[in-house]
Design goal:
Blueprint (H helix, E strand, L loop, with lengths): L15 E8 L3 H16 L4 E9 L3 H11 L3 E3 L2 H5 L6 E4 L6 H10 L3 E4 L7 H14 L3 E3 L7 H11 L6 E9 L16 H4 L3 H17 L3 E9 L4 E3 L5 E3 L5 E8 L4 E7 L8 E8 L2 E6 L5 E6 L10 E4 L20 H16 L9 H20 L3 E2 L3
Parallel strand pairs: 1-2, 1-4, 2-3, 4-5, 5-6, 7-12
Antiparallel strand pairs: 7-13, 8-11, 8-17, 9-10, 11-12, 13-14, 14-15, 15-16
Helix pairs in contact: 1-9, 4-5, 5-10, 6-8, 8-10
The protein binds nicotinamide-adenine-dinucleotide.
């Protein structure tokens, strides 16, 4: 891949800056800006990441975010920011309906782009984003941060080197409970025009990406079922608003090569806060991982002595484990925010190499195709082929 950025130096002379414009400054804005500030402190990167401009719609809130998150500047004029020569990377941390337009404008302005998930509202939009990235020859990525939990990365390594043999089954759930009460206010996450779907696009998107990452399998066909339990909620002004997205969404999957899988996401599972769990079963063993115990990987292998067999819990915080050595001595654990630092660090590294950063927009498109096929299947009541 080609980049117009100046040739970096990792030793001796000061690293060249990679100036970032971040659009959106709430939940993900907080997570991303923390990563922008931490990446160079813990990773040896070819560029110095500079939190240059935070972009939003309201000047007062932008200024508050600028101060809190440590950006050099704030702006409410995205077009003016994109027109600047000194901005190298645009970070999209806004609701789903804005991803395509912001990313397309940024690519047109010759910027690299990191975009939040799900990549787009539809396969059609996602295809345009893939084409624009290829045309612009810019580096692009999607913030599927869970790939870069050390334990998840280790699981991928184990599966890729054949520890489990051929993968037969994937069972994945992403369970939350914050919409269980009808009193929880309406937000953009309940509005199909803004988010495309509910728990499905929000949470199943992560499970789909994680499955592709861990197993290397491609989804062939899906069959889904969805439900919305609370059809109206009051917005911040007390006005009743329609909820036109799913509260819960489950689907079955068939993969190329014969593996099968089950996927469930919900925001109405009382007691479950951010229960993102995936289990992969192969011919020779299994692994299981749960974000709520994110530094641990459960591993079972038939090739261990029979009388000692059972799931073992591997604490993935030794220097030999992915990313762990960049932080603290063995066993000094990591948390949610570190996954964003890892994602950014790998992205910045990829700028200076022939490495393809994953997940890129093609991966985002693949996720979108599964999401869309599953939505079509809930409407038709039939299995749906996945088409990128
Ligand atoms: N990777 C993850 O684990 C993860 C977690 C949460 C959310 N997300 C994704 O991140 C994105 C943002 O979610 P969030 O939780 O930060 O939402 P949020 O509501 O907390 O923040 C959205 C931000 O975007 C701004 N915004 C809204 N419309 C805009 C526009 N048209 N132009 C400029 N700014 C605009 C808002 O003012 C706010 O600052 C979503 O796509 C969501 O799916 C990803």
């Amino acid at each position: 891949m080609v980049t117009s950025l100046p040739k970096p130096t990792t030793t001796g002379a000061r690293r060249r800056p990679l100036r970032v414009a971040m659009v959106g400054h709430a939940f993900m804005g907080r997570a991303h800006s923390n990563a922008l500030r931490q990446a160079n402190r813990f990773f040896d990167l070819p560029y110095e990441v500079v939190a240059q401009v935070v972009v939003g719609r309201d000047a007062a809130r932008v200024e508050a975010a600028r101060k809190k998150f440590g950006f050099e500047e704030g702006s409410t004029d995205l077009a003016a920011v994109l027109a600047r020569d000194d901005i190298d990377l645009v970070d999209v941390a806004t609701p789903n309906d804005t991803h395509a337009s912001i990313a397309l404008a940024a690519l047109k302005a010759n910027k690299h782009v990191m975009c939040e998930k799900p990549l787009a509202l539809s396969v059609v939009e996602a295809r345009k984003m893939v084409a624009a990235a290829a045309k612009a020859k810019r580096h692009v990525g999607v913030w599927h941060n869970y790939r870069r939990c050390p334990a998840a990365s280790l699981a991928q390594r184990m599966i890729a080197r054949g520890d489990l043999g051929a993968v037969r089954q994937v069972r994945a759930v992403y369970l939350q409970d914050w919409l269980s009460s009808a009193e929880t206010p309406w937000s953009w996450r309940n509005d199909k025009a803004v988010c495309g779907s509910g728990a499905h696009g929000d949470l199943n998107a992560h499970l789909i990406d994680m499955t592709r990452f861990l197993t290397g399998l491609e989804f062939e066909a899906v069959c889904g079922v969805e439900q919305t339990y609370t059809k109206k909620r009051k917005d911040g002004d007390g006005k009743p608003r329609l909820v036109d997205v799913d509260d819960a969404f489950a689907f079955l999957a068939r993969f190329a090569g014969g593996a099968i899988g089950t996927f469930e996401s919900t925001r109405v599972a009382p007691g479950r806060k951010n229960h993102n769990r995936i289990e992969v079963s192969g011919e020779k063993g299994s692994i299981a991982w749960n974000l709520e115990r994110m530094n641990e990987l459960e591993v079972f292998r038939f090739d261990e002595p029979r009388d000692g067999q059972g799931f073992r819990t591997v604490m993935c915080m030794d220097g030999v484990h992915p990313y762990a050595a960049n932080w603290w001595p063995d066993g000094h654990i990591l948390g949610y925010e570190h996954t964003f630092v890892h994602t950014l660090a790998d992205f910045v590294r990829s700028l200076d190499s022939a490495l393809r950063f994953r997940p890129d927009f093609e991966d985002g498109l693949a996720v979108q195709a599964v999401l869309e096929a599953a939505q079509k299947s809930t409407a038709s009541g039939r299995w749906q082929t996945v088409k990128n």
